[in-house]
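The passage that follows is intended for readers who have already worked through the single-chain material. We present the inputs for a multi-component assembly, then the predicted structure in tokenized form, and finally a short commentary. You are encouraged to pause after the input and sketch how you expect the pieces to fit together before reading on.
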Amino acid sequence: MSSLPAEDHPQPQSPTDLFVSFTLLALQGFGGVMAVVQRELVEKKRWMTREEFIEDWAVAQVMPGPNVVNLSMMIGARSFGFKGAMAALAGMLTAPLILVLLLALVYAQFAGHPGVAGALRGMGAVAAGLIAATGLKLAGALLNNVLGLRLCAAFGALCFVAIALLRWPLVYVLFGLGGAACVLAYARLKP
Amino acid sequence: MTGALTLVLSVQDWLNLLFHYLMLSLLSVGGAVSTVPDMHRFLVEQQHWLTDAQFNASIALAQASPGPNLLFVALLGWNVGLNAGGWLTGLLGVLLSLAGILIPSTVLTYAAAQWGHRNRDLRAVRAFKQGMAPIVVALLMATSWILASANGSSLQDWPLWLVTVAAALIVWRTKTHLLWLLGAGALLGWHGLV
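Having made your guess, compare it with the prediction:
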């Protein structure tokens, strides 16, 4: 699946294109950018497939650092090397940084308003739903996984229970469950 | 958020801030949010550079504004800087804390991603990607669960959960623009319906 040549789908035109695209998508990302990255880059622009998105995100997740920042840098680097990585990173951070500082300046005046707190709660609930939807959409990519559906479901369920319900530290889950899944996948892949 | 503390920070202090973030960057497997407890320990309890209220407001504001949640780090640096003088030191705080939290992790990730891409046909690299895929999908569902239960975990909060489930189904099944849904959530919350 990942052996499909990248030329099969559209690519960013230039580092400027990367910068503008990431600025626009970062500005839509209230309460987290992951859902927006998936929708914009996989569904609208088609710069990457669902499978490629999952693969890149796996790397972004096991490396230290903010996941979306890692992910945007990797996507930028894929097309334009270091220049692309910096363009994507700058797009992801610059405009939102200016905005959040401006917000901090006006925040004091409105912090006490009950409507503001309520609106934040409502947006938080929607943002949680957006991330679940991203997971549901990406789950379709598991149909082609070398582990097979049953093992994928078992690993997924275990991971969900460990992180969401038992609140185990991510590091143990990634290296424990993830490591086991990688070993099994290794055994099933043809040399 | 201003005027809560008045600080005099030396060059040594600023370097201390930078180095602490450089270290946290390498420890931030799972994102910058996973290092929040340590940032609280360092900035509020140990150095007394921020008040509790400033710390919490920085995180809430960054969550509520667009862009990566990592920007709460910039706000923490901004507030340390404001406490130490004015907007110039505020900008210095933003610069040092962002550079600190970003540089080590991005350099490492960039190197790893380039290596992985060059060696994408290796059996081990393919196994890593195939094996991690179900974990990654499950992590998204778990993140959603954790965010939803942070908003409301008691029985009376069922309208919040309903909003979360409805948003998930609408985004999964339709092409509705995400901003419409966030706007709807904000309206419902503003009027106290959820």
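Commentary: Chain A touches chain B through 110 residues (CB under 8 Å). Chain A has a mean pLDDT of 89. How closely did your sketch match?
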